[in-house]
Amino acid sequence: MEKNNQDQSVISDALRNVPEGEENVITIIRDVGKSGKTSTVTLQRKQIEPLAPVRSESPRRAHLFHSAEGMGEYLKKFGTKNTVVLGDVNEGVIYAVLDEKAEKGFEVIQFRPVVHPLWKPWEELVTERKIELDDFVDFLMFNRKAITEPAGMELIHIMSQVKASTSIEMHRGRGNESLNGILVKTQIQSEEKEDVVDLPTIIELSIPIYVGTEERFVGLDITLQTRSAEPNKIWVFVTTGDLVQAKVDCFMQMFDQVKAADTNGYWIVSLGFTGHQAWDYVKTPQANKN
User: Do the domain assignments include residue 59?
Assistant: First the structure.
């Protein structure tokens, strides 16, 4: 009895205390003889052979392009007969589903344009809508390259006269004989001189909106205003009605670049945006078992 307890203790310890990287092998041999049944238990320990490493599955492609031409070249090489290209005008994004019939998940790549560095400060100006005259003159000095009408330096000169004047009267007359501009009074020593400065109401720009697109015409409407609370400050208000159309034209130019890459006519190319939803499954009642 004591020997059986010792054997059980040895086996129990061997099963519990298995070093890392090893395993127990138990062999039971039964012998049925004339004297009855006998069993022999053999306990061995051996090293576990390491499993061969298995490379994980490649992640799905979700590339983001900033070049319409580059996206077109990618789709030309890796697109399929089931590729769907959709252009979202409102968001300014082009999507491409590489295989619309994929059973193990859809891979969608995107194109998002980059605002051109030449246009970016002008866009910020239009977004803010107003700027102090002093700051506006400085802004024109750094960004005059895109100005086509009036000439950049001419516009700066006009605005600088307003900036340097000591007495300003604003006139908004109507008709050919009316005064429409700013009456600038400057005092030189003991004499006082009055000049009428005709202010341009529109600044014309020729500038690329996005990187990789052609220059577009954008007209900016400018008005100068003062406030009774701050009579010594002149504000320049900047608005535009051309920007929306310019952005749409740029987007369609880029969309056509991607579309042109489908030389075989395999893809479905349209305006729109991607949308995938999970299926709804309806549970059917089990049939009555009678």
Answer: no
R_g (Cα) of the chain, nearest Å: 40
- Specify whether the CB–CB gap between 242 and 185 falls below 8 A: no
Task: Please list the residues that pair with 188 across neighbouring strands.
Answer: 191
How does pLDDT run across 22-64, given as a tens digit for each residue?
A: 666 666 666 655 565 666 666 666 767 777 788 778 888 899 9
Classify 252 in phi/psi space as left (phi over 0), alpha (psi -120 to 50) or beta: alpha
Q: How far apart are CA 160 and CA 182, in angstroms?
A: 13
CA-CA distance, 21 to 27, in Å (whole number)? 20
Q: Is residue 289 included in any domain, yes or no? A: no
DSSP strand pairing (130-132 vs 230-239): antiparallel
Which range of residues forms the domain containing residue 262?
Answer: 64-115+249-271
What whole-number distance in Å separates Cα of residue 38 and Cα of residue 198? 120
Contact call for residues 139 and 147 (beta carbons, < 8 A):
no
Residue 55 lies in a domain: no
Q: Are residues 33 and 138 in the same domain?
A: no
Residues 111 and 254 in one domain: yes
Q: Are residues 133 and 194 part of one domain? A: yes
- Looking at the fold, whether 234 and 262 belong to one and the same domain comes out as no
CA dihedral 143, 146, 151, 157 (to 10 degrees): -10
Per-residue pLDDT reduced to its tens digit, 185-226: 543 333 445 555 677 888 899 999 999 899 999 999 988 887
CA angle 8, 10, 16 (to 5 degrees): 100
Strands 84-88 and 268-271: parallel
- Residue 290 domain flag: no
Nearest Cα to 89, choosing from 237, 241, 270, 235?
A: 270
Domain total in the chain: 3
| 233 and 255 within one domain | no
HSE of 158 in the Cβ direction (CA atoms, 13 Å)? 19
pTM listed for this prediction:
0.66
